[in-house]
């Protein structure tokens, strides 16, 4: 529909979800949150989708919560209760999610970036945790942001609200890559192409493994990882991958050219 705030398209196994509310800098309005939630659900439930890309139209990726809606509103209208579900859906998606930023991200928008597995930005993009400057706390987004950031950088940037550039965002772990704007599409294609080579079940299991807390004792952790490894070596994906390697062919899950 022409008046959608979030667009959805699938091409060769890549689902592209596009925030399209440039009039308010792609702010997380109630309507945009609903449409984004629906698109994420569709992508995750579609077996044909291998990778999800979250991107935007207009000069700004996402400016955070829609403050016009939040004025005088209760917690539910502000999205305090709803927004965590979006971040969790991105974080726990069994399909890898790539954030593609041609422009700035602020506050909740940075939370979206951090919830994705991989984030690529134009080197002109900027970032800021601007919450403290309007008297609020970056509490909800901290759940996805803090695991990504170096601790010293987290203290500095959360407390000062300072705007920082894409190269610093890459240096502190918030994004994976900052490239010239004319190379942004190619860099995202490079990542999605690599991700599409992974087996769906193996990618989902690897994501779950990466999200587990680090164990206090190594013995039980090695036992759990040995069981996980054996299960996938002996499973249908593992056996297909081994057969494809031996036969010098692509495994069945790799999209056709």
Automatic annotation (TrEMBL):
<protein>
    <submittedName>
        <fullName>Enoyl-CoA hydratase</fullName>
    </submittedName>
</protein>
<dbReference type="InterPro" id="IPR014748">
    <property type="entry name" value="Enoyl-CoA_hydra_C"/>
</dbReference>
<dbReference type="GO" id="GO:0003824">
    <property type="term" value="F:catalytic activity"/>
</dbReference>
<dbReference type="InterPro" id="IPR029045">
    <property type="entry name" value="ClpP/crotonase-like_dom_sf"/>
</dbReference>
<comment type="similarity">
    <text>Belongs to the enoyl-CoA hydratase/isomerase family.</text>
</comment>
<dbReference type="InterPro" id="IPR051683">
    <property type="entry name" value="Enoyl-CoA_Hydratase/Isomerase"/>
</dbReference>
<dbReference type="Pfam" id="PF00378">
    <property type="entry name" value="ECH_1"/>
</dbReference>
<dbReference type="InterPro" id="IPR001753">
    <property type="entry name" value="Enoyl-CoA_hydra/iso"/>
</dbReference>
């Amino acid at each position: 529909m022409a008046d959608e705030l979030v667009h959805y398209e699938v091409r060769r196994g890549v689902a592209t979800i596009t925030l399209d509310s440039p009039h308010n800098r792609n702010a997380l309005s109630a309507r945009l949150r609903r449409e984004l939630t629906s698109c994420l659900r569709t992508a995750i439930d579609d077996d044909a989708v291998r990778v999800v890309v979250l991107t935007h139209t207009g000069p700004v990726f996402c400016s955070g919560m829609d403050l016009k809606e939040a004025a005088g509103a209760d917690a539910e209208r502000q999205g305090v209760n709803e927004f965590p579900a979006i971040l969790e859906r991105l974080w726990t998606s069994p399909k890898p999610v790539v954030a593609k930023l041609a422009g700035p991200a602020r506050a909740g928008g940075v939370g979206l970036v951090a919830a994705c597995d991989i984030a690529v930005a134009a080197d002109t993009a900027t970032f800021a945790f601007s919450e403290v400057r309007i008297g609020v706390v970056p509490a909800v987004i901290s759940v996805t942001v803090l695991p990504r950031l170096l601790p010293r950088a987290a203290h500095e940037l959360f407390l000062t609200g300072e705007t920082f550039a894409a190269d610093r965002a890459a240096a502190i772990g918030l994004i994976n890559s900052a490239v010239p704007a004319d190379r942004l599409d190619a860099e995202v294609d490079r990542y999605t192409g690599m991700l599409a080579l992974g087996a769906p079940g193996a990618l989902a299991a690897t994501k779950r493994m990466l999200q587990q807390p680090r164990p206090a004792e190594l013995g039980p952790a090695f036992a759990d990882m040995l069981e996980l490894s054996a299960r996938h070596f002996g499973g249908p994906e593992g056996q297909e991958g081994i057969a494809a390697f031996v036969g010098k062919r692509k495994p069945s899950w790799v999209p056709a050219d």
